[in-house]
Design brief:
Number of helices: 3
Shape: globular
Helix content: 10-25%
Strand order of the largest sheet: 1-4-5-10-9-8
Mean pLDDT: 89
Distance between the termini: 61 Å
Length: about 170
């Protein structure tokens, strides 16, 4: 009898804990390693990405690394006091050893949520996907933050990034 009560209590605890784990608006989804071709200024770039519900998610630092030295470059830092990522547009980024590493898993669990960042001194909220202990951001959102062009060439199925053109708010 004591065993049955213990099992019932454990189940009851799980039932009450699980819904609160996502009470902050986080949502769990499947992330699939993307094989999407990406070009930057007409040159192919190798940057790891996950596809979640039809959108490409990349590491903010990876995009900063490929954009470094370009017109729309941006720097990534961390505000330890506020525990927030800091993005400064127009500033060079120093590549880290951990940047631009390939994704090993074909699929993973992604926890989608909204995170605060500091963008050019102002607080902003961005949508993120937490995958394997790392935050990923939708490519179009990164383009909007850093104000660079992102488009898609349907015939070649290639994502096109342009470092000398501004972000266009469109849904193609």
């Amino acid at each position: 009898m004591k065993k049955k009560i213990s099992v019932l209590l454990a189940i009851l605890m799980l039932i009450t804990i699980i819904p609160t784990a996502f009470a902050d608006g986080a949502k769990e989804m499947k992330a699939v390693k993307s094989s999407q071709k990406i070009t930057l200024d007409k040159e192919a770039v190798e940057v790891a990405a996950y596809n979640i519900a039809g959108s490409n998610y990349l590491k903010l630092r990876d995009v900063a690394a490929i954009m470094s030295g370009k017109k729309k470059q941006f720097n990534i830092d961390y505000n330890a006091e506020r525990k927030l990522i800091v993005v400064e547009t127009g500033k060079p980024y120093t590549k880290l050893e951990s940047d631009l590493k390939p994704i090993k898993e074909a699929s993973a669990k992604a926890i989608l949520s909204e995170k605060a960042i500091i963008l050019n001194g102002d607080d902003e909220d961005i949508d993120t996907a937490f995958i394997n202990e790392t935050n990923y951001v939708k490519l179009r959102d990164i383009a909007k933050i850093a104000n660079f062009y992102v488009g898609y060439d349907e015939p070649t199925q290639t994502v096109i990034l342009k470092s000398d053109e501004a972000y266009l708010d469109n849904d193609d």
